[in-house]
Amino acid sequence: MAVCPACEAELDLDENEAEEGSVISCIDCGADFEIVTPRPLELKLVGADDDDEDDDEDADEEEDLEDEDDDEVDDYDEDDDDDA
Q1: Which tops the pLDDT comparison, 74 or 7?
Q2: d(CA 41, CA 43)
Q3: Exposed, middle or buried by CB within 10 Å (0-12, 13-18, 19+), for 79?
Q4: Taking the complete model, does pTM exceed 0.85, yes or no?
Q5: Which of 2, 27, 39, 56 has the most Cβ atoms closer than 10 angstroms to its Cβ?
Q6: pLDDT over 90 for what percent of the chain?
Q7: Measured between alpha carbons, how far is residue 78 from residues 30, 41, 81 in Å?
Q8: How far is CA 11 from CA 18, 34, 60, in A?
Q9: pLDDT, tens digit, for every residue of 20-60?
Q10: Residue 22: which residues within 8 A CB-CB, separation 6 or more?
């Protein structure tokens, strides 16, 4: 018997017919899950990894911008020293 990882309700899923990559929905909480492996049954919340990847990309972009700002400040300081 398959159980929803989000709310622990029974999922309407015949584990013998479960196929990798299929998406199932919990009738009780409405969460969608992708079947990662049919045996043993492993479910992944649909969209869960996408959010994490977006957060990682945003953090990388922020770091790149901070590095560019630091370089600009360093360049300015060097020019300032040459004039003195």
Answers
A1: 7
A2: 7
A3: exposed
A4: no
A5: 2
A6: 37
A7: 59, 61, 5
A8: 12, 13, 38
A9: 999 999 999 999 999 999 988 899 999 866 545 455 555 55
A10: 34, 35
Q: How far is CA 43 from CA 27, 35, 79, in A?
A: 15, 5, 58
Distance CA 60, CA 74 (A): 21
**Please, are residues 33 and 42 in contact by the beta-carbon 8 Å criterion?**
no
In Å, what is the CA distance from 40 to each residue of 1, 18, 48, 60, 62? Answer: 11, 10, 21, 36, 40
Q: Tokens standing for 58?
A: 């945003």
